[in-house]
Design goal:
mainly beta; two-stranded antiparallel ribbon; 13% helix
Amino acid sequence: METETRVVDAQKDYIVLFKRSGLDTVPLKKEREKSSLLSYAAELYPECLLVGGDNYWEGGVLHRLDRPTSGLVLVARNQKFYDRMIEEQKKGGFIKSYLARTEESVIPEGFPPFPFALKEGLAIHSKFRKYGRGGKAVRPIDPSSYLYERTEREYETMVERIDGHDFHLKLQRGFRHQIRCHLAWSGNAIAGDLLYGGKKRDSFGLVSYALEFMGERVSLL
């Protein structure tokens, strides 16, 4: 799989970029000058900075990948496309596909019992809460917890086992660390994911390889 950031597809309304592992998708508000996928995109397509929603410093970026995760990110080049895609996401019309390389692991502290049978065609779903110092991690909320009804809607990770500890996953609506948390909950931490029980590796075992939106499909495979 690829290791360097590059433009994968460029159209009049959007660009799709490959983000390398270790690069932030967007900067924090107070670190807007910091190198990120957005700054890379803006060097080639400066109009991406003129697009966006409430967080204006995130430009036309329509979804994020965690810093260690590599793969495809969709960025709008104009406000009309950005607004249309926001509505598509709300309707579940923006699908992201991932490949995950995992390892059998001990489920970290703070997780409720895993209520699913990990098999082909499984959908792991939950609401989430912040966890740990500074809320750097997340945990699924136990449906019996009083917090459950006070949080937003559930988030679903569709899981298909490819072979052994390799998985294919799909999301329609994502939460921070969703895939990492859901797989760790099942006892299959992503390889290299120290935050969720994985072992130290030379590479991080999660890649976003395909995006589907408005009848289009962009894939690395």
